[in-house]
Amino acid sequence: MSKTQGDGATRAPWWWGRRRSVVLDVAVAALAGLECAFGAYGLVQDRLHLGVATGVVAVVLGALAGASLVVRRRWPAVPVLVALVFVPGLFGVVLLVVSLYTLAATWEWPSRRRRVVLLSALAMAETFGMVLFAMTAPTEAPPTEPLPPTWVFALIAAVMAVGLVAAPVATGLYVGARRRLVESLKDRAHGLETELDLLAEQARERARRARLEERTRIAREMHDVVAHRVSLMVVHAAALERVIAKDPERARQSARLVGDVGRQALDELREILGVLRMADAHEEAGPGGAAQPEPVDSLAALPRLVDQSRAAGMAVTFTVSGERRPYAPEAEQTAFRVVQEGLTNAHKHAGGAPVTVVLAYVPNGVRVVVVNEPAAAKETGVALPSGGNGLVGMRERVLALGGSFAAGPADSGGFRVEAVLPSRLSVQADRLV
Question: Which of 120, 121, 249, 367 could form a disulfide with 360 if both were Cys (CB 3.0 to 4.6 A apart)?
Answer without folding.
Answer: 367
